[in-house]
Amino acid sequence: MDALSRIEGRAIPFGAKNVDTDIIIPAVWLKTITRDGLGQGAFETIRAVEGNVFDDPDYAGSPILIAGDNFGCGSSREHAAWAILDLGIRAVIAPSYSDIFSGNAVKNGILPVVLPQDAIDRLMEVARDGHEITVDLDTQTVTTPFQDRFAFDIDPFRKHCLLNGLDEVALTLERQAQIGTFESQRAAAQDWLTKGTHI
Amino acid sequence: MASKPRTLYEKIWDDHVVETRDDGTAMIYIDRHLVHEVTSPQAFEALRIAGRPVRRPELTLAVPDHNLPTTARRDAGGNKVPIADPQSAAQLAALEKNAPDFGIEYIGDADEKQGIVHVVGPEQGFSLPGTTIVCGDSHTASHGGLGALAFGIGTSEVEHVLATQTLLLQRSKAMEIRVEGSLPDGVTAKDLILHIIGVIGAAGGSGYVIEYRGAVFEKMSVEQRLTVCNMSIEAGARAGLVAPDETVFRYLKGRPMAPHDDDWDKAVAYWKTLHTDAGAQFDKSVVINAADVEPTVTWGTSPEDVVAIGGVVPSPASFADESKQAAAQKSLDYMGLSAGTPLTDVAIENVFIGSCTNSRIEDLRAAAEVLKGRTKASNVRWAIVVPGSGLVKRQAEEEGLHTIFTDAGFEWREPGCSACLGMNPDKVPAGERCASTSNRNFVGRQGPGARTHLLSPAMAAAAAVKGHLTDVRDL
Lengths: 199, 475
Hints:
The structure holds two protein chains of two kinds. Chain A is of the alpha/beta class. Chain A has eight helices and eight strands; from the N terminus they run E-E-H-H-E-H-E-H-E-H-E-E-E-H-H-H. Chains A and B meet through helix 4, helix 6, helix 7 and helix 8 of A and helix 2, helix 3, helix 5, helix 10 and helix 11 of B.
């Protein structure tokens, strides 16, 4: 995945709460065997309504999405992260996320920024007025041209992976010896655990 | 020195830590991995591109379920009926090829053992107490009903587990939901979990693993516990757990992939240690009064939008903050409902009995008991029963349940995810209502424009008979 440190640009003032992953990408789009092109199906039911924020030319190509509480709840489909990435979005700002979605986002180089609702309300206003927003992962801040400055927390391991564009599988494969040791210890203590897993 | 009292979640977690990084991230060993056709193709492709093998193929089990049509899979001559949708066919074909290519056991569509992954895992004894179980599907939480730490993962994590048999995780907080006493007559596990989601909200469990504790869960069968844990994710919790006990041991004994003979005794001895110690601390505790729970249905487009069947569609003005009021109004518009309408006045055109939440033998028995000697109302256009696996289907047929369903005007189908989500031909038409035993009433979940009311199998059967939502206790 691409490394990420600073995202600057317009933000889509979406703001909705409890946006489930069926809304982000309906199931009919999950029949793919690749990760590509899912932006076409992103937010399909919302985009079917005229005047929606996603098709508003003012926000075309915006790298930031602002949303409400519990963003990405429901299904574990990583297609939701792929679809958002395909729209060109590299940061989402919301008061909270589903646990599975925020993990999927980070693994695809999308930064899920957590900020309280009053900060979200302010950023929605800034975005609607046509101003740019800056998300800086290194300093863990979101700023506007009006001296707004919101600090956010992020898990240090996630930050490290995002800043360096790291592939977790490659990282873990460097620890194969430790995994092997763990497996041998468990095989000695609980040999029944791995017998009979074939029918 | 006596060791610190621990919750069940902490015990399972501690037993699976391979190592902990300085920043607190833990590498957790994964004992069991279930794979289906929708969330795995990109993971297998990534392994292929990087030239990486599957570390422990024998710990993964592959089963197709989401895309499979639930109509006959073989024609009269025993030949495979082709799958009409080319994309579904390609996705199913990818799993059928990927599994043997990487040395993974595959249960195909014509195998009687095939079914919804979350029904197959427990049924085969693949899912065991105290194990870590993952699958690229959020309803993996189901397996917590056996006392396993089970949770859904994304496709990148599917790849990570295939390549390393581990995941990099932060420990969740622990929540207990305690329900003592007994549920009133006619109230089921499904009603209880819908009620719980209504109490804590769709995000109430975010960041937590829930342990369900108290007499109500202790008295439940394994099937009922699987139903409760299945919907933990609808409350935002990645996993739900019930401590394993004699009920679980009886359920698992003799299942094909469960330990046998001496191994069985060793396993049970370990499983008996898996309970929350007296004095262990939860980060949050919620107490639910069993007597408050009634047959429950959803009225809106989030699983937290629940109401007792005797109630009315709520008014958006009754919600505390403005954004909730706006969300409620949007839900009512989508659902075609007006505030103040009694739920029992809501007519339905479709009934779906199935899904990983409610497609096990007990669910089918409960629905059949209501339907015996009755037929669906004339305004119910489409009613289907979809068993969770081929083995559930066979058992139901041995008990004669299928003729009760077909006599009542239901279609008796082949196992799969079916009308729970719009990925196969079983869909609810736009603007129509469905009384559904599944787990999600999201906008468009059962098909574009479909209106879903979640409820228990008995309540779904009762709705079919009356042609509208109704209290099964009044039948």
